[in-house]
Design a protein that fits this description.
Strand content: 25-35%
Number of helices: 3
Mean pLDDT: 82
Radius of gyration: 16 Å
Distance between the termini: 6 Å
Shape: globular
Order of helices and strands: HEEHEEHEEEEE
Number of strands: 9
Length: 174
């Protein structure tokens, strides 16, 4: 189902808390295994921004797929974390900005054999040009690939951002 855009300003400190409370209520429904949300469901569209590996302007993607998720999303959709960790309550608005990347991005920017954990990604930067004012984000995990736009296409490089650290996002969640 669809969680409509949360009312209130983008900088509203209670915004994430209200989303969490709603998910907690859903989780309490008898028989409910998991409750989580994402801004764009797999196979349901695009949401992209330019991104660059910090200090590597040659490693830029003009339309990087960006997904904003709640803690528990990867468990809810059975998407394994293959290295590092999942998002949790420590990934708050006041914490170090974090991202989890998919294996497709790890192959593209770290040649599949490097270790991106601890490396940094600049959202809104393309070939050294900054388009939005956003802090760089630390890579804390790698998840298995999943389909993005079409079932017949290979997975696109994707970055996952914890909803608590996406105060600029004002859209709904599924």
């Amino acid at each position: 189902f669809w969680i409509p855009p949360v009312q209130g300003s983008k900088s509203d400190p209670n915004r994430a808390a209200r989303q969490t409370a709603l998910l907690d209520r859903l989780q309490s429904i008898p028989g409910m295994r998991n409750a989580a949300a994402i801004n764009v469901l797999p196979l349901d569209g695009q949401n992209n921004f330019p991104c660059q590996r910090e200090n590597h302007p040659e490693q830029s993607i003009g339309g990087m797929e960006i997904r904003i998720v709640t803690p528990g999303y990867f468990e809810a959709v059975s998407m394994p974390v293959v290295r590092g960790r999942r998002f949790d309550s420590t990934d708050s608005a006041l914490a170090t900005p974090t991202v989890i990347i998919n294996e497709a991005l790890a192959r593209v920017w770290w040649n599949g054999d490097g270790n991106p954990i601890g490396d940094r990604i600049a959202l809104g930067v393309f070939k050294g040009q900054r388009y939005i004012d956003e802090k760089t984000r630390e890579v804390v995990g790698i998840v298995a690939d999943s389909k993005t736009l079409r079932i017949t296409e290979t997975a696109r490089p994707t970055i996952f951002i914890p909803v608590a650290q996406a105060g600029w996002y004002s859209g709904g969640m599924s």
